Amino acid sequence: MTDDTKYLIVGAEKAHQDLHFLRRQAGRSSAARQLYREILREIERLRTGATDGHHALGYEPGKGDLRDCVTAYVRSDPAHKADYRLVFREMGPAAPGERPRRELLAVKPRRGANDVYAHVCARLSRHPDDRQPGLNRFGDRRPDARGSQAARQAELDTKRAIAHAWSGQQPLSSTRALMPAGTRNPRGTEDQARAAAAAQYAEPRGSPLWAGSSGSDPARGRRQPTTGYPHPRRNGSGPTGWPGRGQ
Fold first, then answer.
1. Is the pLDDT of residue 232 over 90?
2. What is the CATH number of domain 8-178?
3. For the chain, N or C: smaller number of CB within 10 Å?
4. What's the rounded Cα separation, in Å, for the pair 210 and 204?
5. Local structure of 88: helix, strand or coil
């Protein structure tokens, strides 16, 4: 990667599916294309460290314990308020000498009954009403999206330092670099990973009915619900498939 790279961006499998869904939508309207372009720009800013996200998340009953997570805002229309969120986790490098990682968990609409936080809880196998004892190290401060930029940045810096120092902050088993499946050397150089990601998530071109040409699209050839979130297969206790307390 070039010298401006500060973080290695990786993504859970469901986050990859979010991006593939949005990429398909981008071929169908100018508004969807603008949204997808802004999402890619925000991911690039996370990679270079130009942003650390908007604010750190916390625990709220019904929304889940996301004290190790950060949210970033995306505006599909610069003239309106942000209507999409990217949620990610900070974590240290996979091996000494490598760059720290930012694990993308979800890219979803900001509003709605089945919002981005419900999806994140499901993807992390966390019940939305339960606390995660291992996250007590991040403190109990409620998230403050309206706080001053300096206060929010100070909290982001503190939580990032905690996450980098905690050996328990590990990616999901499905998490991989933003590169196509089937690459022979998924642990290759960061330059190779970035080049592959650029090819996989480039803006669609051509027909507005473009449906993607990458054989790595996990949703290709499979009927998807309109939310872009696959129907749960194993944990069916809720619309997002979050687990029950006994699981």
1. no
2. 3.30.2310.20
3. C
4. 7
5. strand
Sequence-ordered list of residues with C-beta below 8 angstroms from that of 41, at least 6 positions apart, any chain? none
The answer to whether 93 touches 124, Cβ cutoff 8 Å, is no
Mean pLDDT of the chain: 77
Distance from C-alpha of 87 to C-alpha of 69, rounded to nearest angstrom: 7
Between strands 8-11 and 101-109, the pairing is parallel
First-last CA distance in the chain: 41
Q: Over the stretch 93-142, which tens digit does the pLDDT of each residue have?
A: 999 999 999 999 999 988 766 678 889 999 999 999 999 999 999 998 77
Provide the CA 119 distance to its chain's centre, in angstroms. Answer: 11
The answer for residues whose C-beta is within 8 angstroms of residue 184's C-beta and 6 or more apart is none
67 within 8 A of 57, measured Cβ to Cβ: yes
Give the C-alpha separation, 90 to 159, whole Å: 8
The residue assigned the tokens 């490598």 is 98
